Amino acid sequence: MTEPELLFDPTDPTVALDPFPAYARLRETHPVWRSPASGIWFVTRHADVHASWRDKRLGSSFSHRYTAEEFLTDGALPPWYDARYPDFAAFERWDLISLEPPDHTKLRRLVVEAFTPRTIERQRPIAQRLVAERLAAGRESGSLDVARDVAEPLSLAIICDLIGVPPSDRAAILALSHDVVGMYEPQPPDEKKARANDAAREFMQYTAGLIAERRRAPADDLLSGLLDATIDGERLDDAQVTSTVMLLLMAGHEASVNAAGNGVAAFAAHPEQWDLLRSDGSLLKPAIEETLRFDPPLQFFQRWVLEHDFEVAGTSVPRGARVGLMIGSANRDPRRYPEPDVFRIVRGDASHLSFGGGIHFCLGAPLARLELEVLFGALAEALPRIEVLPGAVRRPGFQFRGYSSLPIAPTA
């Protein structure tokens, strides 16, 4: 029997470095393609990804309807179902991204109530002060790493302040978060899966301690609000609160940091767009949307096929299969965007799929936009041009696309 052709390999470092040519080939020749390595069915075109977000035949979980034994038929078992990783599985049980109604509906409602526009806007002065301090320090030292020196501490400070994590604990939270999200790669190696499981255990232990402290002494923060909230007259248990806090801490900074680095790199590579932004401050918000479209921080979301009759782009996908909704590919689909590979901050319609869609649309989207607005706005005031210096390093892996290091010249 002939082995299926490997048209797309997310574990290939060259693909992870620049996946967009591979996306273009798949969109034209295999818009829905099953990877023989991971068993994931990758959906690549914008219209199909957009429609799939809202298709109830797909779900982020199957456990609300089936047992693993009766459901899994396509060899697509994700690593967190492996008995070797019980701590990660415990986190996943109440991870909001992995829940489906009715559990998802109830829990998300509580978190949405905490992410009010007023709450988000209260973070603006914190963000402005931190960015100003970091840029000033960069000018004084002659060295500025956008990823390490600005984006990471900015995003971490904002989400930790909202939740109630003390500054002394934030560096440890960052390290644990990086390890936990490694489990979501399409084909994580055993070493990465083991690190993710260990980090999930440490993260849960830390969060349990924080919960105990807030039960003793409530504060004006999101964690205290979750502990005081009720669903249908019942309070959340510690497992629900722990998973929710972990998700917010991870999702609340991973995407923002990556989006910031990707956006700065895009402006460095397209100086005429930077000049345009600096000449017209009203373009700041559309510029943010274009950076998110052009080089999204998250490349794909996974979904399960819950029904037998799921068909997309003329391809029948069986129940029990995992589907990869390819955000990075959809955002570059020429059927949706004129000249999609061109970075252009003035577009007739710069809407994108980088924050997902349907019931799982990203809760933190307004917070991420605020952070990018403050960062890009401050850089536009400070720097006539953005010059990336030698030493820029892309994050390893495919799923989360960004920079672990992005040094730029701190002065003109």
UniProtKB/TrEMBL annotation:
Organism of origin: Eiseniibacteriota bacterium
Family listed: Belongs to the cytochrome P450 family.
CDD domains hit by this protein: CYP164-like
Protein name (database record): Cytochrome P450
GO molecular function terms listed in the Swiss-Prot or TrEMBL record: heme binding; iron ion binding; monooxygenase activity; oxidoreductase activity, acting on paired donors, with incorporation or reduction of molecular oxygen
InterPro entries assigned: Cyt_P450 (IPR001128), Cyt_P450_B (IPR002397), Cyt_P450_CS (IPR017972), Cyt_P450_sf (IPR036396)
Superkingdom of the source species: Bacteria
Keywords: Heme, Iron, Metal-binding, Monooxygenase, Oxidoreductase
SUPFAM superfamilies given in the database record: Cytochrome P450
Pfam families: p450 (PF00067)
